[in-house]
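A.,

Following up on our hallway conversation. Structure tokens first:
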């Protein structure tokens, strides 16, 4: 199969989550909606069900969710609820609602109230102090509750062996995605920003074994190509999500490729593996959460050192990019509070950046397009 055909398949899947859901339901499988961030999807897989990432949608307008949401909630959270209320995600057998930010905490209750008897809503609280014995025990306790509730939906208890197998499947999938983002940088003439985004987005709507098989096949074909002699410029992207094809098309029109990313919906979700040798697989998942780093949503005891800002700035240098584009999700406090630190690290290293205010209801791209166009000239000077 040619690379373009493979890329088109990912694009089709990324653009049609409802169709994917129907596909799995047609196979008699159960599916669980998984809201951001850091839910242990491995448990869903271990229960024999398909996890379905719920990061809102670029296609929807918010109407029914308004009944439940404050106007200052980000559109990711509001649109995730809208998709449940308007029937888009009707095939789901339950949802997991992590509560890691100030929007998701109250939203978890909005989901519970709005779903009523329609579907089980599984609450998940991650600890702030996730490293020490107590933090790990808290995470294990929370994950154990999720495990029990998923087992109830699946109709069978989830065994340790099934979780160990799921960890292997997920580690392999994370490795394939890490490999893909490197190959996408080497072959940015073939893997354009919209195509890169679609490949990574499709992972949220596919069973991970199936996705990984497809992605490994794509990686193998990309690896055969000579590294491209890219004449345009490159950036690192940062933010919560940047999956809007229209916005990404503006990069392509200005010959800007994506060298690497620090995006929650993309690389932040697959940077860290879980141990395959830990005797207790629940502890392996808790330690994986503890091992997550350089993330605006997670407590960093050494935050005064601006480790995260420097990590992202170094990513720009090491990936061969000339600058950074920050997709600032409207009404996202964690990203907004982190921005001054990221800016300082970038400024200290002389790395140019722009901050684009976005949300998932964006319809007018004129201002963003102009900013990207002007930034392309700045990047050209930094080559
Ligand atoms: S975009 Fe920001 S405010 Fe919205 S759910 Fe994510 S972290 Fe929370």
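Then the amino acids I'd put at each of the 383 positions:
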């Amino acid at each position: 199969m040619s690379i373009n055909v493979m890329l088109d398949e990912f694009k089709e899947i990324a653009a049609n989550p409802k169709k994917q859901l129907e596909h799995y339901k047609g196979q008699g499988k159960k599916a669980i909606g998984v809201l951001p961030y850091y839910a242990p999807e491995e448990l869903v897989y271990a229960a024999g069900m398909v996890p379905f990432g719920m990061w809102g949608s670029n296609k929807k307008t918010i109407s029914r969710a308004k009944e439940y949401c404050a106007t200052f909630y980000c559109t990711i959270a509001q649109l995730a609820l809208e998709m449940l209320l308007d029937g888009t995600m009707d095939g789901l057998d339950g949802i997991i609602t992590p509560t890691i930010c100030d929007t998701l905490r109250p939203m978890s209750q909005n989901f519970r109230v709005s779903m009523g008897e329609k579907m089980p809503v599984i609450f998940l609280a991650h600890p702030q102090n996730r490293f020490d014995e107590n933090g790990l025990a808290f995470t294990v306790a929370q994950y154990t509750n999720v495990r029990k509730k998923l087992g109830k939906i699946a109709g069978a208890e989830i065994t340790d062996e099934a979780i160990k197998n799921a960890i292997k499947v997920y580690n392999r999938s994370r490795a394939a995605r890490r490999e893909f983002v490197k190959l996408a940088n080497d072959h940015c003439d073939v893997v354009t920003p919209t195509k890169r985004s679609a490949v990574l987005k499709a992972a949220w709507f596919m069973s991970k074994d199936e996705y990984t098989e497809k992605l490994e096949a794509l990686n193998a074909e990309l690896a055969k190509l000579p590294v491209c002699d890219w004449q345009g410029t490159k950036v690192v992207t940062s933010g919560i999500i940047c999956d809007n094809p229209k916005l990404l098309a503006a990069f392509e029109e200005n010959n800007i490729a994506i060298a690497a990313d620090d995006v929650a919906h993309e690389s932040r979700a697959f940077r860290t593996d879980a141990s395959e040798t830990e005797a207790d697989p629940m502890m392996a998942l808790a330690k994986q959460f503890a091992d997550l780093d350089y993330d605006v949503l997670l407590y960093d005891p050494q935050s005064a050192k601006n480790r995260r800002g420097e990590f992202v700035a170094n990513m720009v240098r090491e990936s061969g990019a000339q600058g950074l584009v920050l997709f600032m999700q409207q009404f996202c406090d964690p990203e907004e509070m982190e921005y001054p630190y990221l800016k300082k690290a970038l400024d200290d290293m002389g790395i140019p950046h722009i901050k684009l205010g976005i949300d998932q209801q964006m319809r007018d791209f004129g201002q963003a397009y102009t900013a990207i166009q002007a930034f392309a000239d700045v990047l050209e000077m930094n080559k």
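The radius of gyration is 20 Å. Curious whether your intuition agrees with the design.

B.
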